[in-house]
Amino acid sequence: MNKVIIINLNGIAYQLEENGYEALRSYLDAAARRLEGNPDKDEIIADIEQSIADKFRTVLGANKTVVVTKEVEDVIEAMGPVQNASDETPASGPGASQGTGTAARAGDSPAPPKRLYRIRDGKQFGGVCNGLAAYFNVDVTLVRIAFAFMALTWGAGIILYLIMMLVVPWANTSAEKAAATGLPSTAEEFIRRAKEGYYEGMKTFKDRRAFREWKWQFKQEMRQRKREFQREFHQNAEQWRQNWHQHWAQFPQPHPGWWFVYPILAVISAVLTLLCLASIVSLVLTGAVFGIFFPAGIHLWLGILILLVIFSILKLPLKAIRYSCYYHGGCGPGYYYRPGLHLWNTFVGLAFLVFVLWLLNSHSEHAHEAIEHVRAATHHVVDALRDWWNQPSPAP
Amino acid sequence: MSINEKFTAIKKGLLEFLVLKIVAANKVYVADILNQLSATEFATQEGTLYPLLSKMRREELVDYEWKESEAGPPRKYYQLTAKGREQLRETSEYWQRISATVKSLGQDPGQPTEESTPR
Questions:
Q1: DSSP string, A215-260
Q2: How much is the pTM?
Q3: Are A386 and A289 members of one domain?
Q4: A22 lies in the same domain as A134
């Protein structure tokens, strides 16, 4: 069963299946875009609509009142992509049905405007990364890694993902799928769309005076904003420069000992993080943390939350030491302005993490298994999240 | 790249000439033009033909009039204007010269007079 949409072609109504309607609309939209600037644009579009209507009439009869998607696609293919006659560059030649065979495909020339959709084919979770990859024309793995990375830093990736899952629609019809992958987005395309938006807005001004006033105000506002932005920018830059100079004047170099103390603190912090991760994994896999079972009835998510809180509390003294080091130790409050030390710190922490993982993996059968299980555990977590997300709201 | 693809641009350029020829012979509407072209290497589609015809009308090479058809709505029938006829004559001559050039080039340079002069 398919939804039917009624359209009006040069004064006569036709019933089209929804997907067919989408295909026809994107074809006519593309035609209109191709003919942009052509003085006879409206007439040509009318001719083309008339011709499409003639073709529809031949497939309809007394017992057949709806044009199905396949028939619409056939008609579009027979019409061929609309090409501006004064267009000197033959993008895809008029070789047509008899010619190369590829040139006649409807999707070739009438490029639908690119839009962001979620894509079901090959999705892992919500199809967001898939859609983004198609939109920006990059490998989906890269997008996923970027999201995972963002999820590690304060969970921004997770929040962004969930928001996009709610906001971005699925690509359902073939036209939407085409729009999701579409042409690579170009600056021209953005400018064109912006212009369209601009002119759309203008149409609503019936009164010329009102329009002029609006335009004047708009320009003033833009100018004002630009000035403010520039001023702020200069102020900020000045402020930073001063801070920088002061800082280096006050604290020429950290005491060399800190180059060892900071990494040690970082390593302890990394150990705690690892323990936290291990206990979460263990909780998910076995329902117990280091042999201690959670009381029955506590949901998995609550358990994880409790673990996170416990480990934050454990880390508190460590944090206190580090902060007190920053303020009373050799570095002074300018610790964060020492990119070299900061980088070194991160590097040592990461190296330690990798080393521990490697050690566990190669020397402990149990740990090896656990690491192998992390993959499965991740899937489990994702499944649980999805179930939770999809569960129907409780009936009233 | 097939021959067909290599000639895409040339065929596109020649399309206006062919449409002039078809319209010159008879009052036609778009489906007639498509039919006549469909059996040839120049087969084309409405998507190409409508914009081309509208450009030719703007250049005052062709003109159209509405005529009732037995089935369906009235149709546009195209015919050549005086300017269109002139253009067709010039284009035909130019085409003759081009095909003569294509024929004569690349002949054996040893005896050019014997080969290229008509017997």
A1: HHHHHHHHHHHHHHHHHHHHHHHHHHHHHHHHHHHH--S--TTHHH
A2: 0.40
A3: yes
A4: no
Q: Do B43 and A84 touch (CB under 8 A)?
A: no
pLDDT tens string A194-243:
555 555 555 555 566 777 777 788 788 888 878 888 888 788 777 777 77
Q: Centre a 10 Å sphere on the Cβ of residue A9 and count the other Cβ atoms it contains.
A: 20
* Chain B residues touching residue A38 (CB < 8 angstroms): 51, 54
Domains identified in chain A, total number:
4
Q: Same domain for A382 and A265?
A: yes
Are residues B51 and A85, on separate chains, in Cβ contact within 8 Å? yes
Whole-complex ipTM: 0.75
Domain around A325 = 258-390
Could you tell me if residue A111 is inside a domain? Answer: no
CA separation for the pair A76, A78 (Å, rounded): 5
Whether A283 and A381 share a structural domain: yes
Measured in whole angstroms, how far is the alpha carbon of residue A117 from the centre of its chain? 9
Per CB-CB distance under 8 Å, the chain B contacts of A96 are 43-45, 48
Residues of B in Cβ contact (< 8 Å) with A88: none
Q: Which domains does chain B have, with CATH numbers?
A: 3-100 (1.10.10.10)
Instruction: Give the A-side interface with B, CB within 8 Å.
Output: 10, 31, 35, 38-40, 43-44, 47-48, 50-51, 54, 57, 78-86, 90, 93-100, 103-104
Cβ(A140)–Cβ(A130) below 8 Å: yes
